Amino acid sequence: MNKKALLGAIASVALLAVLVGAVAATQWSDYTQSDSPQSVPFDGVDGDSGDIDHGSINYALFETYGPLLLVVALLMFGAMIGGICIAKEEAERDDSD
Fold this sequence. Notes:
Strand content: under 5%
């Protein structure tokens, strides 16, 4: 096995371990206790006073989960760059034959 394949295997095992850890750390009992579907708290911004509703989706996404959103964005950016590099290498190999 060459060095790139070994590094790829190590990276995939590390990402799988992070995924398993995230699933194991989630308290699933909070989501399965009620039989009826729960409504999404989306009240947005109060039009009269301009105060931000701290229970809205946009507040929760960017204030509560902001650091996680940045990590996911960087991971997706790296995946796009990696896909472009792999496609470029394959195109160069096809041209040389």
